[in-house]
Amino acid sequence: MTLSTPFSSKVSYSFSWVGMVGLAIIVFWAVIALAAPHIIPYPIGEIVDEDYFGPMSSKLLLGSDYLGRDMLSRLMMGARYTVGISLAAVCIACFTGTALGMAAAVIGGWFDTILSRFLDALNSIPSKLSGLVVAAAIGSSINVLIVMLAVIYTPGAYRFARALAVNVNTMDYITVARTRGESILYIIFSEILPNIIGPLLADFGIRFVFITLLLSGLSFLGLGVQPPYADWGALVHENISGLPFGAPAVIVPSLAIASLTISVNLLIDNLPKKIRDRSA
Amino acid sequence: MENLVEIRGLKVEATTDSGRRLDIIKGVDLDIAPGEIVALIGESGSGKTTIALTLMGYTRTGCRISGGSIHVAGKDMVTLSERQRAMIRGREISYVPQSAAAAFNPTKRIIDQVVEVTHIHKLLPPAEARQKAISLFKALSLPNPEQIGDRYPHQVSGGQLQRLAAAMALISDPKLVIFDEPTTALDVTTQIEVLRAFKSVMKKSGIAGVYVSHDLAVVAQIADRILVLRNGEVQEVGSTETILNDAKHPYTRELLSAFEPKPRGDQLDLAAEAKPLLEINALTAGYGPLQEDGLPLVRAVQEASITVQKGRNLGIIGESGCGKSTLARSIAGILPASSGKLTLDGRQLAPSARQRSREQLRELQIVFQHADTSLNPAKSIEDILGRPLTFYHGMKGSQRSTRIDQLLDMVQLPKALRSRTPAELSGGQKQRVNFARALAAEPKIILCDEITSALDTVVAAAVIDLLKELQRELALSYIFISHDLSVVEAICDEIVVMYHGKKVEQITPAISKIPQHPYSQLLFSSVPKLDPNWLDSLERDPELVKAYAHA
Questions:
Q1: Which terminus has fewer CB within 10 Å in chain A: N or C?
Q2: Count of CB atoms situated within 10 Å of the CB of B110
């Protein structure tokens, strides 16, 4: 339906270049992660350099690691684990946290109190510590890692969603929906969710960064992704002895972690803004 | 005599989100003689506050003075540096904000905040400043002028705080005081005391004033001259007498006509058999933990019994905190009543909305005061109106779409609005959508909780006319809750006066308009009239005022 009244409802967006840079880097890593098996120059397990911690060269663009394997190939394959595991974990954490948080805000009472205290208790355990304990107790397969990271970050997502939903819940339009006789599911997904989706997406980004850093941290300690696979944290861990030689093998994965987390932050700080200009 | 203030060709521009510049004040001229009080009047968005603030060389964030000159006592506020303006602010020009409650720092004693100006500008030694503050408290007829300053802001009433804010503005003996809607947030019974205090102090001290308001009747009491504004342009300027009695501009006349009492058009047929639609029997509702007698700690409504007849309207009136909104919320089942009985069309209603049947919920709809918060900002008008159609009547597709058009038509909105979100509508349009949503349920009775109080006078009058028209067409009944007597009189067949959670009187204007209960008398007599001499000639029984007004 088109409008002929003086102020049109055409909505445009402004997107700052800083945000675009962030988005470009994220897309770059996503593409690498998806295409890695087809574009890596050498198989990741093959020793291709006579020397270990070899420098950058035209043959080995990012040098070689502590066994003389091609760093570029290992980094590309590492992206699959770092991005993939973090993304899976953040999706589970944000979905459960948000759904529970909105339900707690709308239902209130005992449901809210018990759920909040339980998740507070979970939240009070330091994340690295619980990661260490779980990894030590039941080992660390990729599935275990995903579930563990999701559980660690669910309480935060819950808190955030609940705080937002509590504010929206006091609005008159929620009261109107309640007096209309609407069900709790309708109120949560149709009345509340559309109003808090923006901040929730920003929270999703931040939580992704946290999970990436925790995963890299665990891998660095040798408790994350296990050989023969290696994520970026594990790459830093296995090549740490190259630090005195200034080997690219230890610096490049660190830079990769930094570039991903910083660009996610840049993007969520500069999300496209809706311009509402009545008569433009 | 030379003018104290001379504004010539003032232009203020604002920058929008997309960087576009927009003129919000379009060349305004204004003169104020020493000791004169000029009122700036207009609806929201007319630029009245923006102009008042430019007198201090101040504009709100995103705005900028883009042209013209503002001479106050010989100095051009536009060209002065920020430091020079700061020297003048508070000393030569001072400001009384709309909400004194928000303007006072809750952690400091009142007296310290009142004398702060004398300290900043090094005008008086502290002891003398304190004495002066106390004499101002006396002049503003505040109770206990010696001690009231030692209290904290939350320990005094709203009307007192507003007068204390005026004392803060007057302590530096300014040449000009800007009053920005200082009585808008007050109850009518309180407003009178505050207005009287302002008027007598301003007259005695001979300070010039700018009084910003949307309420013509209030302005008529205090101003010498009135400037009518709309869309950042002066529509008409003249002495209070001329504006009230001999307005030239059509917009001014529209404003004036919105004030004229419009008694209910169709005369109530008293002989007709009255069939009760909604019966409220000894309803008590409140907040806080339940006491031993099964009632809540704070009883906002106590034993209210009200009957609404089919096809007739009931008005509930009272000041803020009298329990009128709580009553509406317990009728709607949002706040379940702790005792009492509700009967709608012969069937008893459960106290809580959750226990009521869908049919019962449909028959009784509630419309809230703030259309801004009652419409989900994330949804289009179409979705907002369509939901009750699907929910109550199971409508889908083209049937639903046709009905949405009909509803928009009923509330006199163009069909083109259906794809917009609430943020893209004006205040009056939003309130119409809010009302159309209640109509979509096809209710028997609609509870209107202060639905016109957030609207401008002219817009509110149009909404009231619309309600009357819809009632004739749809055989509805309204319960109309308001603090504004003229609104209630315009639409209601019966008026219930509430005070402190109790129904004190029920008046049927068609039989008698004269209230019997002393509180109703006080309330009815406190509504400002367009007559400039109304405030001076108004006589109130001091005992009555003491008993009921919280000034």
A1: N
A2: 25
Interchain CB contact of A50 with B (< 8 Å): no
ipTM: 0.74
Q: Which amino acid makes up residue B463?
A: V
Disruptive mutation site among A14, A173, A184, A279 for chain B (greatest number of B CBs within 10 Å): A173
| Distance, CA of B447 to CA of B331 (rounded, Å) | 9
Report the amino acid identity of residue B264.
R
Instruction: Report the candidate in B236, B182, B209, B229 with the shortest Cα–Cα distance to residue B38.
Output: B209
Q: Is A17 exposed, middle or buried, given 0-12, 13-18 or 19+ CB atoms closer than 10 A?
A: exposed
Question: Token pair of B473, please?
Answer: 């067409």
Q: Which residue of B has its CA nearest to A13?
A: B18
Strands (E), B249-346: 276-290, 296-309, 314-317, 339-344
Q: Which two tokens stand for residue B486?
A: 């003229």
* C-alpha closest to that of A180 among B393, B396, B347: B393
Write the residue in A5, A173, A273 that is nearest to B416 by C-beta. Answer: A5
Taking the C-alpha atoms of residue B59 and residue B13, their distance in angstroms, rounded to an integer, is: 10
Choose between B243 and B19: higher pLDDT. Answer: B243
Give the separation between CA B390 and CA B352, rounded to whole angstroms: 23
Report the DSSP beta bridge partners of residue B178.
Answer: B95, B210
Within its chain, how far is the Cα of B509 from the centroid? 24
Inter-CA distances, A5 with A278, B414, B436, Å: 11, 9, 20
How much of chain B, in percent, has pLDDT values that exceed 70?
95
Residue numbers in A near B22 (CB within 8 A):
279
Query: What does the alpha-carbon distance between residue B35 and residue B57 come to, in Å, rounded to a whole number?
Result: 21
Cα A108-A109-A113 angle, rounded to 5 deg: 90
* Residue A99 predicted with pLDDT over 90: yes
Q: How many CA atoms lie within 13 A of A7 on its CB side?
A: 12
* Interface test mutation site (partner B, options A176, A183, A197, A279, max chain B beta carbons within 10 A): A176
Residue among B246, B31, B352 at smallest CA distance from A179: B352
- Evaluate the omega torsion of the peptide bond into residue A199 and state whether it is cis, within 30 degrees of 0: no
| Residues A101-150 pLDDT 10s | 999 999 988 999 999 999 999 888 888 888 888 888 887 788 888 999 99
Rounded Cα distance, A173 and B334, in Å: 13
Contact (CB, 8 A) for B232 and B23: yes
DSSP assignment letter at B418: G
- CA B297/CA B196 separation, integer angstroms: 37
**pLDDT band, very low/low/confident/very high, at B549 (cuts 50, 70, 90):** low
Tokens 């008694």, residue located: B263
Kindly state the DSSP code that residue B196 receives in the 8-state scheme. Answer: H
* CB atoms A280 and B16 under 8 Å: yes
Q: Do B482 and B488 touch, CB atoms closer than 8 A?
A: yes
Sequence ranges of the domains in chain A: 12-275
Enumerate domains of chain B plus CATH numbers.
5-257 (3.40.50.300), 278-513 (3.40.50.300)
- In whole angstroms, what is the distance from residue B211 CA to residue B197 CA? 14
Does the CB of A182 have a partner CB in chain B at under 8 Å?
Answer: yes
Is the whole model's pTM more than 0.95, yes or no?
A: no
Give B185-210 pLDDT, tens digit per residue: 777 877 888 888 888 888 888 889 99
Which residues pair with residue B10 across a beta bridge? B28
Q: Is A12 on the interface with B (CB under 8 A)?
A: yes
Q: Which long-range contacts (CB under 8 A, 24 or more apart) does B505-511 make?
A: B506/B306, B508/B268, B509/B263, B509/B264, B510/B267, B510/B268, B510/B270, B511/B270
Angstrom distance (rounded) from CA B493 to CA B507: 9
Maximal CA-CA distance, chain A: 76
Of B262 and B536, the structure prediction assigns the larger pLDDT to B536
CATH of A12-275, one of 3.30.1300.10, 1.10.3720.10, 3.30.565.10, 3.30.43.10: 1.10.3720.10
